[in-house]
């Protein structure tokens, strides 16, 4: 994208900027933070994100710089919207594609009416357990570290809100969905529980965050697009100083 695009502006990173980023597949949220922080060097600025996305998820990641990092908790608390795909008829230990399928189920007798009906128990205020393969900390250690070592982990129930859960496509074993939910909702856990509601199994195969609060994915930068722009502006400033 051209750096003359109206999407870009004169940033003041030290004073504080809110950056909307489309997190790439298999990048961690911290990878994105690190890439942007490095592009701002030699400035030593605080850079943080407002709401982790799993490495296998893509979509909207809010990045704050400078003084705006003090507001991260406010942005993180906002309602989120996701679209994604689940695979019905199988489970994995991580509830997504990070781990191999460990159990399969027959799905030929499940009809579309049953699938649509299975959404209803998950709409409203619900309780769920985070996946064992997650970044939740227990006694100071992240669950996924213990899970990858094969250690048993104690999962603690959490209460979340899901105002909307819609099925948008059914082509078994694939089912597409859209979910609007509160902070702290684990979509992987919800999909796993969805499979259990059908006396079956399900795991997440694709997930994209499309909205956080009033911020939309369609307005987000690609990571390298923004990094290259920042670097080009630094080169311009350097040239002007040397002239």
TrEMBL record:
Gene3D superfamilies: Pseudouridine synthase (3.30.2350.10). Its EC number is 5.4.99.25. It catalyses: uridine(55) in tRNA = pseudouridine(55) in tRNA. It comes from Pedobacter alluvionis. Responsible for synthesis of pseudouridine from uracil-55 in the psi GC loop of transfer RNAs. GO terms for molecular function: RNA binding; tRNA pseudouridine(55) synthase activity. The active site is at residue 54. Pfam families: TruB_N (PF01509). Belongs to the pseudouridine synthase TruB family. Type 1 subfamily. CDD domains: PseudoU_synth_EcTruB. Residues 46-187 form the Pseudouridine synthase II N-terminal domain. One of its GO terms (biological process) is tRNA pseudouridine synthesis. Keywords: Isomerase, tRNA processing. SUPFAM superfamilies: Pseudouridine synthase. This is tRNA pseudouridine synthase B. NCBIfam families: TruB. Coiled coil: none annotated.
């Amino acid at each position: 994208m051209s750096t003359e695009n109206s999407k870009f502006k004169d940033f003041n990173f030290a004073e504080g900027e809110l950056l909307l980023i489309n997190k790439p597949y298999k990048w961690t949220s911290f990878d994105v933070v690190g890439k942007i922080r490095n592009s701002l060097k030699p400035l030593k600025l605080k850079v943080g994100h407002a709401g982790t996305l799993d490495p296998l998820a893509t979509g909207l990641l809010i990045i704050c710089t400078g003084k705006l990092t003090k507001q991260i908790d406010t942005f993180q608390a906002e309602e989120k919207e996701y679209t994604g795909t689940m695979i019905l008829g199988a489970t994995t230990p991580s509830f997504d594609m990070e781990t191999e399928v460990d159990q399969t189920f027959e799905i030929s007798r499940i009809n579309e009416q049953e699938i649509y009906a299975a959404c209803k128990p998950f709409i409203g205020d619900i309780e769920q357990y985070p996946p064992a393969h997650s970044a939740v900390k227990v006694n100071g250690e992240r669950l996924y570290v213990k899970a990858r070592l094969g250690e048993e982990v104690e999962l603690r129930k959490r209460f979340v809100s899901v105002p909307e859960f819609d099925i948008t496509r059914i082509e078994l074993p694939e089912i597409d969905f859209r979910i609007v939910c509160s902070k702290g909702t684990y979509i992987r856990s919800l999909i796993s529980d969805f499979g259990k509601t059908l006396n079956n199994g399900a795991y997440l195969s694709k997930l994209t965050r499309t909205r956080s609060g009033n911020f939309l994915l369609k307005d987000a930068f690609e990571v390298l697009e923004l990094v290259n722009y920042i670097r080009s502006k630094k080169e311009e400033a350097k040239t002007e100083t040397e002239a």
